């Protein structure tokens, strides 16, 4: 079964977006990361519901935001 929201293989791929996605999901459990990546490629994953995909994506966004805040906080301490 195909995912109607999956990107077409004919669309151009932006390497920066791919890098950012890798950063976003790097803290996920390896199994969940594999599921999320497969789902985003349009592959059918029976173990992941759309709700769970949204949860994983939200977790990844929050993780990235927290990392950025930590980096900014360290910069302020080093360079007041």
Account of the protein in words:
The protein has three helices and no strands. The protein has 80 residues and is mostly helical. The protein has one domain (15-78). The radius of gyration is 16 Å and the shape is elongated. The relative contact order is 0.13.
Let me know the average pLDDT. Answer: 67
Please state the oligomeric state of the protein chains shown. single chain
The succession of helices and strands, N to C, reads: HHH
**Count of runs of 4 or more consecutive helical residues:** 3
* Helix fraction bin: 55-70%
Low-confidence parts, pLDDT < 50 over ≥5 residues? none
Radius of gyration: 16 Å
User: How many β strands by DSSP?
Assistant: 0
- Biggest β-sheet description: none
| Gap between N and C termini | 55 Å
Task: Assign the structural class, choosing from mainly alpha, mainly beta, alpha/beta, alpha+beta, or little secondary structure.
Answer: mainly alpha
The structural domain count equals 1
Strand content: under 5%
Q: Which overall shape is indicated by the principal axes computed on the Cα atoms?
A: elongated
